[in-house]
Amino acid sequence: MGSSTTTLPALATNPKIIFFTDYDGTITQQDSNDHMTDNVGYGPERRQAGNDAVLKGTRHFRDAFQEMMDSVTLPFSECISLLGKNITLDPAFKDFFHWCKDNNVPIVILSGGMRPIIKGMLRGWLGDEETETIQIVSNDVAVREGKTSIDEEGGWRIEFHDESVFGHDKSREIRPYAQLPEGERPILLYAGDGVSDLSAAKETDLLFAKAGRDLVTWCERENVKFTTFEDFSEILATVKDIASGKLSVKDAATGRK
Questions:
Q1: What does the alpha-carbon distance between residue 51 and residue 65 come to, in Å, rounded to a whole number?
Q2: CATH number of the domain that residue 110 is part of
Q3: Catalytic machinery residues
Q4: What radius of gyration do the chain's Cα atoms show?
Q5: Residue pLDDT, tens place only, 57-85
Q6: Is position 110 within any domain?
Q7: Pfam families this protein is in (predicted)?
């Protein structure tokens, strides 16, 4: 298995379970990108219209999200400050994080958001050392053409992770693990809440979808099995049961709604 760990870093500790998760609105109680768009961008109505179009399949997520982020011209450092005052961590995530760390369950964040925001906020909540144990695969931030710094008005733009219609096709990170031969393949779990998670929703053994959010709507329409959660205390209880053998993934993924 050693050769696989160079390309599949979550295998480094030979885990039985890997936990993939969205960041915004899943690990956090609010979506940082939505918050910026609603408060210093073009507002909630246009944002929701874009999300609805993505859910209906009439727009690609990449295009809708690019439009959202382009509407936010606040200097990046001020965006960080705004989010630090308004975005809160899921109240049970720290307990989940520490249980995973103690029980060799790697956490891999797959996010449509931007790495400097994700890493900066996690450091504030978990500390530098703990944050470094979490693999983060996400979009990034770059200086906008014609500008000299991300910290000037209109100075930054989102830099997408890949060329896909998602901007970050999360399935590409999960599939190499899913394709491992029997005996080497861990149980794969995913948690998400919204339109950035559509590319990942069918890729793992069990999908946790946040109650009342867009991902549930999409799963119900597309007949994708999932189990809902309100916060990470419910995810932790289920993952503990799977890890101990009390609950099979098949039984957990019965589509509880």
A1: 9
A2: 3.40.50.1000
A3: 22, 24
A4: 18
A5: 999 999 999 999 999 999 999 999 999 99
A6: yes
A7: HAD
